[in-house]
């Protein structure tokens, strides 16, 4: 059965991608990013932190495709290696907020009552803060470390997952198959975790994909204002921040390439989101 | 505009073909339908789901969705070819010349606009009037559709009105520009029988008063018979029979019509009559069980249970009943009567606020519903849900659904024994084994209903709660499912608590019937006697509202 299942999933995925070329392109882009991140140390032509002052601030050339920065470091190598850190931060943060948010939200949506009200108000309070400022405050208080960027990004994403899971579970809680599961001897908690959550996943996957792009921007944004990863670690946000000083003197490549990398990553994940829903929903299959 | 155009039909549909482009290629939904309608006539368009009856209606009003296209034939309205009408022609056609009433009135009304405005909008879309004149006219229309206290209701939002009231507002919108043709697509499906009667009576009267021709699209033969002068029957996109209702129901010509007529429960039909001879499930001999020895506890003894909801409203009050093993008891009432709440309390999915429930002598009402899944008795009380479309987990195959209670309640493990047991259950409910690997969305409504029943009987329960098990099914499928349930009940000596709003079905299926109204029992007794001679006005109104096909005697005098 599992092989039939797999092949039908593949066939279905192929069908959806054929009908949505944009999704296919976005999926290709996301895959490319992932591969670059995984093989970054082998792909980077130069050492990303080795400075070579003699070649500082050179425009893109055959030797340095994306030029060099003020310390003579190869921008392309830094971009490639930075993808690793940026994607790791984004993926971990989204995974944490998804895992916590979906479970909390699903329990709230199913049980209603006091738990739902309490969590709902907490989420309201959280969302009342400007989220980026909240993330800044958290990183400032906890310290400039990668883990803290992940935690801050996860926490500011949490309300969206809680609300989303809550709403999706809430509309399903009175359906026949949910009651049927209970008549088949499942406890309330099992119904939420083993029956309702898997059914909500396709919709959540869309949210996750959109969120990934947003989390990358958030991490880069924190680094940009000096609250994230510290130089000389290659990171897209830092690269934009450092390059910004030179833009008035016409050294466009220092900001343009990391900026483009950010845009490309965010765009890929956002476009992928829509297609994911069609792929993951079993009802869309025939 | 007037009916004086006499002999020329108002609407002629000639060999209409409609094709939908779907993922699996082109699907012909309507394959050559011809019909004609005289001014002021009410025509019944009857068929089961997928017969193309609604598509025909949508094609006539040019409301087909994007995937659908008229690929052949002609539609003439007042002699004018409107098959390919577009733009301005279409706008003047919609509303002013023909109007449509949809199945779900709540979905058809804009939830954030007061109903008076919505009726006025419809008037303003086709006529040059001032806002105030339109509102005045809207008020007149609400009065015409017999909405009580129309001045106040003008400023009500749809959610503040009942389903029946919403449908009246829809009728008001539809007739606002005096159309000469009204297409009503299942206008009363989803409404209670008594509400259905009121709405249909109103619709018929308005149509007669205003000389409007009406096409009544419905799956309910009885309803069409009661209100239409002529009925056409559709099957798989084709028109199979056209006749006056009495002739159609008592001398059906086409085999499909014959099957459909047989499957429609009437005031006198028996379960065995619902399916033609060839397909009948052989009845199991009823071996009269010896009366249980003295002192055997009742299977179910419910003592004055009540349910008070969190907001303080009383859902069910003072409900008592008892059942012996193998007995079948019906629970009927309109929506909001508390029948579902009661059945879920007995099924131990929700807790009663007061009272006691004894099952086989054990006080199961004491165990909170939240812990009942661990009880030994969980497998003895099972439930079949109303809508087969949402009673199966979309991520479970049919096999997984049926195996679920066996794994949880019988402690079976995945393996050959489980597979055998699941296949045996599938066989018992007549579900082909090759369908077991399918997901719910790959099964038809009837097949899903069978999976739901197989799941409920998998653990061989002693009490089966059936919550409107056939309400969402076509009559021919309902007939087969009812027979199946009846057979299973006799084979396993299963007790049924049959919750339904369909009195004919309850009369056939149940030994005794309990009538509920707003959470209180108004009448109970032996089913046949209760329906033949109702003691309370409420039960009488329920019984009278069921659209029956007139008995054959009427044909002789007709």
In short:
With 286 residues, chain A is mainly α. Helices cover 75% and strands 0% of the residues of chain A.
- Give the CA-CA distance, first to last residue of chain A: 17 Å
> Percent of residues of chain B in helical segments?
25-40%
Query: Quaternary status of these chains?
Result: heterodimer
Strand percentage of chain B: 15-25%
Q: Cα distance, first to last residue of chain B?
A: 32 Å
Quick one: how many beta strands of chain A?
0
Biggest sheet overview of chain A = none
Low-confidence stretches of chain A: none
* Biggest sheet: strand arrangement of chain B: 6-7-8-3-9-10
Low-confidence stretches of chain B: 1-5, 552-558
What is the N-to-C succession of helices and strands of chain A? Answer: HHHHHHHHHHH
What does the largest sheet of chain B look like?
6 strands, mixed
Number of strands of chain B: 20
Largest contact between protein chains? A-B, 23 and 35 residues
**Mean pLDDT over the residues of chain A:** 87
Helix content of chain A: over 70%
For the residues shown, what is the average pLDDT of chain B? Answer: 86
Structural shape of chain B: globular
Number of helices of chain B: 20
Structural class of chain A: mainly alpha
Describe this entry's structure for a reader.
The complex is a heterodimer of chains A (286) and B (558). Chain A has helices spanning 2-19, 21-38, 40-43, 75-111, 113-128, 131-142, 146-172, 176-183, 188-224, 236-244, 253-280. By secondary structure, chain A is an all-alpha fold. In chain A, helix 4 packs parallel to helix 11 and helix 9 packs parallel to helix 10 (236-244). The relative contact order of chain A is 0.14. Chain B is of the alpha/beta class and 558 residues long. Helices cover 35% and strands 23% of the residues of chain B. Chain B has helices at 53-60, 87-93, 105-108, 115-126, 131-144, 150-153, 163-175, 193-210, 221-227, 245-250, 255-263, 339-346, 398-409, 416-428, 445-457, 475-492, 503-509, 527-532, 537-545, 553-557; strands at residues 11-22, 25-37, 42-46, 68-77, 80-81, 98-101, 181-185, 213-218, 230-235, 238-243, 300-308, 314-323, 328-332, 354-359, 362-363, 381-384, 463-467, 495-500, 512-517, 520-526. In chain B, strand 7 (181-185), helix 8 (193-210) and strand 8 (213-218) form a beta-alpha-beta unit. Mean pLDDT of chain B is 86; it is low at 1-5 and 552-558. The A-B interface holds A 1, 4, 113, 175-177, 179-188, 195, 198-199, 282-283, 285-286 and B 23-24, 310, 344, 347, 349, 370, 373-374, 378-379, 381-383, 385-387, 390-396, 404-405, 408-409, 437, 439, 441-442, 452, 455-456.
């Amino acid at each position: 059965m599992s092989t039939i299942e797999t092949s039908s999933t593949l066939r279905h995925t192929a069908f959806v991608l054929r009908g949505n070329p944009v999704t296919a392109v976005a999926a290709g882009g996301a895959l490319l990013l992932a591969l670059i991140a995984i093989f970054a140390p082998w792909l980077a032509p130069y050492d990303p932190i080795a400075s070579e002052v003699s070649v500082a601030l050179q425009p893109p050339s055959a030797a340095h495709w994306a030029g060099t920065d003020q310390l003579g470091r190869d921008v392309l190598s830094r971009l490639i290696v930075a993808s690793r850190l940026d994607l790791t931060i984004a993926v971990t943060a989204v995974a944490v907020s998804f895992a916590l948010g979906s479970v909390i939200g699903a329990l709230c949506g199913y049980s209603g009552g006091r738990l739902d009200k309490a969590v709902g108000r907490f989420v309201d309070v959280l969302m009342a803060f400007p989220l980026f400022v909240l993330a800044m405050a958290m990183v400032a208080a906890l310290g400039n470390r990668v883990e803290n960027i992940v935690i801050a990004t996860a926490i500011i994403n949490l309300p969206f997952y809680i609300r989303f899971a809550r709403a999706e579970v809430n509309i399903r809680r009175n359906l026949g198959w949910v009651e049927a599961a209970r008549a088949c001897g499942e406890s309330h908690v099992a119904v939420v975790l083993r029956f309702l959550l898997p059914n909500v996943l396709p919709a959540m996957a869309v949210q996750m994909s959109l969120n990934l792009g947003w989390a990358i921007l958030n991490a880069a944004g924190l680094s940009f204002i000096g609250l994230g990863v510290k130089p000389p670690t290659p990171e897209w946000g830092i690269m934009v921040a450092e390059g910004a000083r030179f833009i008035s003197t016409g050294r466009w490549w220092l900001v343009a390439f990391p900026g483009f990398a950010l845009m490309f990553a965010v765009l890929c994940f956002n476009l992928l989101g829509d297609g994911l829903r069609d792929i993951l929903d079993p009802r869309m299959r025939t | 505009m007037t009916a004086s155009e006499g002999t020329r039909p108002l609407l002629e549909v000639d060999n209409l073909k409609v094709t939908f482009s779907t993922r699996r290629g082109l699907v012909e939904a309507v394959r050559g339908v011809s019909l004609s309608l005289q001014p002021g006539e009410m025509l019944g368009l009857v068929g089961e789901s997928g017969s193309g009856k609604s598509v025909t209606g949508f094609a006539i009003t040019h409301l087909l969705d994007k995937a659908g296209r008229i690929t052949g034939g002609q539609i003439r309205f007042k002699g004018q070819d409107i098959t390919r009408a577009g733009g301005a022609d279409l706008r003047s056609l919609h509303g002013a010349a023909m109007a449509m009433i949809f199945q779900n009135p709540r979905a058809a009304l804009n939830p954030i606009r007061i109903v008076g405005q919505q009726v006025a909008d419809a008037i303003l879309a086709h006529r040059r009037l001032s806002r105030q004149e339109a509102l005045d006219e809207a008020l007149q229309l609400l009065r015409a559709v017999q909405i009580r206290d129309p001045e106040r209701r003008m400023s009500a939002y749809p959610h503040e009105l009942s389903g029946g009231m919403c449908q009246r507002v829809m009728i008001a919108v539809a007739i606002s520009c005096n159309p000469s043709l009204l297409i009503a697509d299942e206008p009363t499906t989803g409404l209670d029988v008594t509400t259905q009667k009121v709405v249909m009576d109103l619709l018929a009267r308005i149509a007669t008063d205003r000389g409007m021709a009406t096409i009544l699209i419905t799956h309910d033969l009885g309803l069409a018979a009661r209100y239409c002068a002529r009925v056409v029957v559709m099957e798989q996109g084709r028109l199979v029979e056209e006749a006056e209702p009495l002739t159609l129901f008592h001398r059906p010509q086409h085999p499909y019509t014959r099957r459909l007529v047989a499957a429609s429960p009437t005031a006198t039909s028996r379960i065995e009559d619902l399916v033609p001879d060839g397909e009948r499930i052989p009845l199991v001999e009823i071996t009269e069980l010896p009366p249980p020895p003295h002192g055997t506890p009742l299977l179910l003894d419910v003592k004055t249970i009540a349910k008070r909801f969190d907001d303080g409203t009383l859902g069910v009050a003072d409900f008592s009943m008892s059942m012996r093993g193998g007995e079948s008891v019906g629970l009927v009432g309109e929506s909001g009567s508390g029948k579902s709440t009661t059945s879920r309390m007995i099924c131990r999915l929700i807790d009663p606020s007061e009272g006691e429930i004894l099952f086989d002598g054990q006080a199961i009402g004491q165990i909170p519903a939240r812990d009942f899944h661990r009880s030994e008795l969980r497998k003895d009380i099972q439930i079949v849900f109303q809508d087969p479309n949402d009673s199966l987990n979309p991520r479970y195959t049919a096999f997984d659904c049926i195996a679920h209670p066996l794994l949880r309640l019988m402690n079976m493990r995945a393996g050959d024994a489980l597979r055998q047991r699941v296949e045996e259950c599938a066989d018992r409910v007549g579900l082909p084994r090759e369908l077991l690997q399918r997901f719910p969305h790959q099964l038809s409504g009837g097949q899903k209903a069978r999976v739901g029943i197989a799941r409920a009987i998998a653990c061989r329960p002693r009490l089966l709660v059936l919550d409107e098990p056939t309400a969402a099914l076509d009559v021919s499928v309902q007939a087969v499912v009812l027979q199946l349930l009846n057979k299973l009940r006799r084979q396993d000596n299963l007790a049924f608590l049959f919750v339904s709003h369909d009195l004919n079905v309850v009369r056939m299926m149940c030994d005794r019937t309990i009538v509920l109204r707003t959470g209180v029992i108004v009448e109970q007794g032996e089913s046949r006697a209760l329906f033949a001679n109702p003691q309370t006005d409420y039960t009488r109104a329920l019984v009278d509202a069921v659209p029956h096909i007139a008995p054959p005697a009427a044909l002789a005098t007709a």
